[in-house]
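Need the bound structure for thymidine-5'-diphosphate, inputs here:
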Amino acid sequence: MILITGGAGFIGSNFVLHLLNNEAVSEKILVLDNLTYAGNMSNLSAISSNANFNFEKCDINNALALKEIIRRYKPRAVIHFAAESHVDRSIKGPSKFIETNITGTFNLLEASYEYFLTLDNGTNNTKKSGAQITKKQFRFLHVSTDEVYGSLEPNEPGFSENHPYKPNSPYAASKASSDFLVRAWNKTYNLPTLISNCSNNFGPYQFPEKLIPLVILNAMDHHAIPIYGDGKQIRDWLYVEDHCRALFLILDKGVIGETYNIGGNCEFQNIELVKKICLILNDLLPLKDSAKITQYHELIQFIDDRPGHDKRYAVDNQKLKNAFSWKPRETLFSGLKKTVQWYIDNLDWVKSIKNNSYKSWMKENYSKSFKKGENESS
Ligand code: NAD
Ligand code: TYD
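Answer from helper R.:
Posting the output first, comments after.
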């Protein structure tokens, strides 16, 4: 049994689908998720009738419920995706980020450690603990972000695992705190932990508050495409399936107590990236003669910058490459094409996401930036 927190969110659901479809994992999978605005059971509909798939609706802030579920399912690994994950929301309302990302991770570490202590040492008392697996087999993989390292100057090398932590947003600070907690539970209590810090992901099932799906959906609706500041900020993009393959390798072969940085070696300015998406849309979803625009990029609008906006992220992924011969399979262009096509083909999913809570977020975050009518969600 592998326990996956946040498995109904963007990366978590892609990881569950990857395990069951691509790695042909024959173990049971338990998704533990509170189904916040970002979690969606329909992300998992393709495998929901798989006999190995299990789901528990649970808030990681509920320490007692977490302990009970872990005791009951006896996982051989915990993979921790559950988090509040959007920088702009963390600026508008940081408290949920402190609660879920820091206290929630603490609760999960405590529940995992309590359970870990009941596991057999691998000698002779398996009957006493009642558990099938041993302490030696157990792993806790904490899925984190490159944003903990802060922002790079234009010519600085990418973030290596030894780069100092300098988080700038409430989101990044909360993830940095959770990384430190995971480290401490390894150093102090010998909980067998692993940490991964990944760059910006994109792909199917990403909630359309993040740049790439937001641009695709706004463009499809002929609404304004919002670019913060001058659009020259740089991110290092990775297709989500490549992230999932890396996580599986780290879980399987990673050295306990180590951190692995994951990145696409794929740096682009936001404005360059958005123009690429517009070009792909021109091709995959040609505009009708009756449309008010002739090309999607005409929808681009520069708006007020995000406070504390990190200028540049880039990841040095050499350690991961050397350890596991991993490298990304998708280029930015091939991944973007797949992603745009996925949103075009999954309008029912899109419709279910664009509920009242999404509309009020869009209004709260963007309404002051646009002239009336330019960004009304359909
Ligand atoms: P997401 O926001 O799409 O999904 C988060 C999931 O966690 C949702 O299913 C949500 O319901 C669940 N969740 C939130 N609070 C919870 C709680 N209190 N209890 C139980 N479940 C809860 O996020 P994502 O983009 O899939 O990111 C997953 C993880 O990967 C996060 O930890 C994030 O920090 C990290 N990460 C994301 C990126 C990225 O580009 N998206 C890059 C690197 C690392
Ligand atoms: P985002 O997808 O929110 O990821 P992160 O902030 O975690 O990197 O944003 C990616 C980049 O795009 C970031 O530099 C902020 C920028 N951005 C915009 O220009 N406009 C937007 O509407 C959004 C959501 C992001």
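Comments: The two ends are 42 Å apart (CA to CA). The first helix runs from residue 10 to 21.
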